[in-house]
């Protein structure tokens, strides 16, 4: 029998499988990604909500998959930490999902997260209409992505059972099916303001796959609660984008009221910081090396 090729696990795979609780920080463009990496985060979440928002779209598949891939490509170009991409539902059936996944690998993604809803999805915090995908159909999406990308892409299956109001039994049945279909990790989502749904799921889960959570709505839960529940990874899913909105609103209001930028100059990043963040120094050295004097 031929030995199966077992490549070294990717950095994202190691993060998800580590015994320590891991954190992924939201990025929606190259600048936010660079800032997250400089702050010390070991991995990024390319958020669908945030990428859509910065493009002026709603998080309901108004942005095309090529726009998402392009945003991921820019993030990958300026960072060296792994990127887990929010692939929504995979933009259609198994065929759309595997095409998008292949393009994400080419763009530099380390993983994709697919949610078990149907295209076009709606953001999980908006309204009550969140029809779930048929389990077998969704498993086909996972398998197609696995077969297409293999070890080049970590595949995260995202459970929307609680979002759709279907409860713990449905979540567990789906999670087991998705693990059998090849998911590398399970993201369990909840929009309650306390972690009760998440903890009920963790209490019943067999730990055959790492669990990822997105504590946007249950934001006041102490992080130690997640550690004790054996959760692998926490995603801070939209906080760079929301911070940018607050900061931009504040600075616009100040400038329009004061008809001057004098008052805010000390409170915002200097242009020098921007040059440093995007490594203008490297361009200077490259010019000396490649441009004739
Ligand atoms: C995102 O960041 O786009 C997510 C998380 O999918 S949520 O907005 O909570 O659905
Ligand atoms: Mg999303």
TrEMBL record:
GO molecular function (one): phosphoenolpyruvate mutase activity
E.C. designation(s): 5.4.2.9
UniProt entry tagged with the keyword Repeat: no
Keywords: Isomerase, Pyruvate
Pfam families: PEP_mutase
Family classification: Belongs to the isocitrate lyase/PEP mutase superfamily. PEP mutase family.
Protein's recorded name: phosphoenolpyruvate mutase
